[in-house]
Amino acid sequence: QVQLVESGGGLVQAGGSLRLSCAASERSSSNYVMGWFRQAPGKEREFVAVTTWSGGIVNYADSVKGRFTISRDSAINTVYLQMNNLKPEDTAVYYCTADRFIATVKSGKSDYWGQGTQVTVSS
Hints:
Elements: E1 4-7, E2 10-13, E3 18-24, E4 33-39, E5 46-51, E6 58-60, E7 68-73, E8 78-83, E9 92-99, H1 102-106, E10 112-113, E11 117-122
Parallel strand pairs: 2-11
Antiparallel strand pairs: 1-3, 3-8, 4-5, 4-9, 5-6, 7-8, 9-10, 9-11
């Protein structure tokens, strides 16, 4: 199984930036579609961004487009989420996720999930 571990969350003021990382435990994860979801208190889990193993397809939620950038380094089985111009509405637990197919990842039905990392944006 693929193990995913997120890091990089924290407390930041509105307008600031954070960079999240997700490290996968197995080389085979380089062949997986990888993405990010988030879940705020009292809200449903929400799609944020996704990328194929080659980076050939990149999709973002409308709420983060232009502010967040997803990228990956397949050589070290790591995916990143660069978050700029953060807003209080971005406050959530952010989860890394992976699966074979982009539709599966975007739908929130991935087989593999990280433990989550907390992002808190103050006003």
